[in-house]
Structures are given as C-alpha cells and as structure tokens.
Amino acid sequence: MALIITDDCINCDVCEPECPNGAISQGEEIYEINPDKCTECVGHYDEPQCQQVCPVDCIPHDPDRVENPDQLMAKFIKLTQK
Fold it and tell me: Can you give the pTM of this predicted structure?
C-alpha cells in the first residue's frame, strides 16, 4: 500500500529528505507522496521512514492503493533498476 500525507501535515519538511525513493515532494499546500514511487521503504528499511520522523502522525496507508509486500518489493526493484 502506498502512503499518503493528510491535511494534518504542518509542512515541517522532515519527511522529504528521509524518503529513499524520492517519492515525497512539496505540493501546493502540503507535502505529497507519489504513489508510483512509494514502496513504504520496502527494499531500504524495515519501516517507512517518513512515518518514523513525522511529528504529527499524518502519514497513513492509502486505502485506494492497496499493495502487498511482494508488490512493494517488485516496485522497489523496478525503481532501482533505472
């Protein structure tokens, strides 16, 4: 499952540099996660790093983008082969 950033985001800028896939960027109002690049840190870390550093706990799983660990690993492999 990709992650999303909710409207509770305070634009603190701690999540963006933690993303190993470069999936997080500043949107018009709050930070956003590109679901095509989000692997929940599978292939890099045991847990999503953005969730670990977020001070307001505003990065849940995206219920519209359900992916299992195998799919996340396949996405990681595809992203790192480029």
Answer: 0.92
